[in-house]
Each structure stands twice: as structure tokens, then as C-alpha cells.
Amino acid sequence: MQYKLSAPAQIDSIINLPASKSISNRALIIYALTKDGILPQNLSDCDDTKVIIRALRDMPDMIDIMAAGTAMRFMTSYLSVIPGTHAITGTERMKHRPIKVLVDALRYLGADIEYLEEEGFPPLRITGKNLEGGRLEIPGNISSQYISALLLISPVLRNGLELVLTGDIISRPYIDLTLHTMHDFGIKAEWTDVQTITTGHQEYQPRQYTIENDWSAASYWYEIMALSNISSLTSSGKDSVSIRLEGLADGSRQGDSVVRYLFSMLGVKTVFDHAKRGVPTMVTLKKVPTHLQRFDYDFINQPDLAQTLVVCCCALDIPFHFTGLATLRIKETNRIEALKKELRKLGYVIKDVDGSELIWDGERCEASMEPIDTYEDHRMALAFAPLCIKFPGLRINNPQVVTKSYPHFWDHLRQAGFTITE
């Protein structure tokens, strides 16, 4: 399937963003570990969350989490501490995404896990049992999903968990999001020093819990607002673009809520309908003048925003140097290489350094305008779609990949007046 996209002459739309899959997936594992747990409300309807819901509901002998990396990591930990034997697998790409660090950590705690194919990668066979817990050291520069997977089960370990993160710690906001979610269900889990998180043996408490909407999904609407000054969208004046986003909270615990500050440097102001921190409300995006000459930023804590900012800065002709991108190589695709290849189709020559930095100094090449490939990666489709504002008729291959995190994205674009044809 291929979509051809064109932007409208003006936008005036209220978008009901999807629920946060990051919070949904954490809350679901906690729900499953809670005696007499109450199913959280406003759960994400994305693929990544649906596979966890299905796995927890049916608990088949073979659990297929498809392309959901979070589900693979979280379910591996969960299956290690509940009775029964299960295998867990996924797509071919998932079978090449490493999981050795998590498996080694769980085995150290006493887990019974074996590899069914290649050492260090899914699929796995897991026999759950009571684990002792105790002190565990793992590198801090690995995927935060490994760390969160261990933290989520830490209260049910007999001796709790003292988790020591060695070296540099990346994606700390995602770790903190896990701790905050655990706190919401009555668990005391704290940073006891700058490198150590300690959780005692406790019981999760049942709670009525409602999931906030997703700041990561909001980022694509920020991108649309930022790009609106380079097209006919603004030909009728500065008020020709009105975007309001539902269900976002000022003071959100989501790491990607930093998007509001990043896009303030690209001329997008965030206005909350009311000032009560932590309570979801309506957000209005407004254009403000900006004269940013260059954008340098370390994405060590928000790697999922990198594609959006890379693509947007190219379209705005803003040179950049973005660092902290090492984990992009082991996502749904190698996002470093995917960005380089797809942006070249539009005439932008970006370079990488050691697979962890991306640099654009303004270098251009002849644009082929070939369709944008998405590499089974939802964020490639989501980040590139707004470029139809600058490149009318932009084509995107395999657009259905957005269901992994934002199932109704194309519907929302149509609602905002974008033309989408197959």
C-alpha cells in the first residue's frame, strides 16, 4: 500500500490524541501483578498495547508479541515471576533485536529462561517461579525498557531489588516514568543514590487508574504547526492554522513531554487551557516568530523524538547536530540509516558519526522524490507525513505501520483537512 499526501489550505482542528502506550504498557503489567487488580482506563489502542492485553488475557503457550519491543521486554520479566511455562516470540525483525542483557539479569536473579533459536535474541522459553531478588548490576547505557522490565517485577521478588546502573544512564525519564507509575499503585521504589534504585518486597495496591494521552503522538502535530510557515497554509494570515490537542497534562511524567520546549525553539508555543499541573486538559498550539540559526541537542533522554526533529529541521532549513542517538540503531529499524536514506530522496544530505550522532550542515543533493519507505517503523511514517506541507504529493509506502503507536493518525490527518489517496 502507498499513500499520496497533500496539505490543506488551512487547518482548524481538535485532535483527540491516543492514550500513552508507555504508561499503558507499564500499568498493564502492574495490573497483572496486583491481587484483585482493576483494569486501567483509557488504555492505548495501539498494536504494542493490544499484544500485551491479548497475552495477559489468553496466556497461550506461545505468545506472539509481533513487532512490540516494549511488550517483549516487559512480558519476559513478567513471565519469569508467574507460574507456568510459555514461549515468547515476534516478527523476524524482533528476532534480531537483542535481549541478552535482560535475560542475563533475570537469570542472575534465578529465572529459568532458554533461547529457542539464536543466543541473545528471541524467541525464548520461560518457566516462571518465585525469584529471590537482591542486588543486581547492569549497564546504564542500555535500553531503558530492560531497566523498566526489571523494576516492574521488583516488588514481587522475595528480597526486593537493589538495581545498580553502571556507567552513563540513558533515557532516564522513561525509568522515572516507571517509578512514578509504580508509586501510583502504592509501591515505594526510589533512587537511593545517583546510580541505584531500591525496591523492597511489597504488594501492588488496586487503584482506579486513567491513562494520560500521548506526548509522543503530539510531536507530529507540533511538527505540522512548525512547518506551516513554509506553505500556502499561512497565505491567508497567521490564524490560518489552529491545532488543539486533547488530553495532555502540564507537568506530565512522560519524558517526551519535553517536545513542547524543543518546538518552542522552532516557533511553536504551547498553551494549556487551565494551569492545574498534572491534570490532562486541552492544549493549543500557536505560532510565534523564531530566528533559530542552528539546533544542537542531546537526545539521550528522548530518542523517540529524534526522527521528528531531524525531519522538521531539514524542512525548515535549520542545520543541526543531534547526539545521544545510539539506541536508534536497534529500534524497529536502524533509524540512523533509514533517516539518511529517506531524506536524501528529498534532497537532504545528512551524515552520522559513530552511529550515535546526526549532522546536517545544509548540504543538498538532487531530490528524486521517490516514495518514502517506512521499514516497518511507525515513527518513519509519522515523522515524514507532515513533509507533504513542503512537498505536495509526498508518497509514503506501507503507511499502515502507524498502528504500532498511533492507529488513527491518518484519520486525524483527514479530519484536519489533509488529502490522502492510495
Largest sheet: 4 strands, mixed
Distance between the termini: 7 Å
Mean pLDDT: 94
Strand order of the largest sheet: 2-11-13-12
Low-confidence stretches: none
Rounded Rg: 22 Å
State the helical fraction: 25-40%
The percent range for strand residues is: 15-25%
**Secondary-structure-derived class:** alpha+beta
Large-scale geometry = globular
Q: Overview of this structure, please?
A:
It is a single chain. The N and C termini lie close together (7 Å). A hairpin with a 3-residue loop joins β16 (351-353) and β17 (357-360). A four-stranded mixed beta sheet has the order 2-11-13-12. Strands 3-4-6-5 form a four-stranded mixed beta sheet, covered by helices on one side. It contains twelve helices and 19 strands. With 422 residues, it is an alpha+beta fold.
Topology:
Elements: E1 2-6, E2 11-16, H1 21-33, H2 47-58, E3 62-64, H3 69-80, E4 84-89, H4 100-108, E5 112-115, E6 124-128, E7 134-139, H5 144-153, E8 161-166, H6 172-184, E9 189-193, E10 196-199, H7 215-227, E11 241-248, H8 259-264, E12 268-272, E13 281-287, E14 295-298, H9 306-315, E15 320-323, H10 335-345, E16 351-353, E17 357-360, H11 378-384, E18 394-397, H12 409-415, E19 419-421
Parallel strand pairs: 2-11, 3-4, 7-8, 14-15
Antiparallel strand pairs: 1-18, 1-19, 4-6, 5-6, 8-10, 9-10, 11-13, 12-13, 15-17, 16-17
Helix pairs in contact: 1-2, 1-3, 1-6, 2-3, 3-5, 4-5, 5-6, 7-9, 9-11
What is this entry, summarized?
The protein is an alpha+beta fold and 422 residues long. The chain has helices at residues 21-33, 47-58, 69-80, 100-108, 144-153, 172-184, 215-227, 259-264, 306-315, 335-345, 378-384, 409-415; strands spanning 2-6, 11-16, 62-64, 84-89, 112-115, 124-128, 134-139, 161-166, 189-193, 196-199, 241-248, 268-272, 281-287, 295-298, 320-323, 351-353, 357-360, 394-397, 419-421.
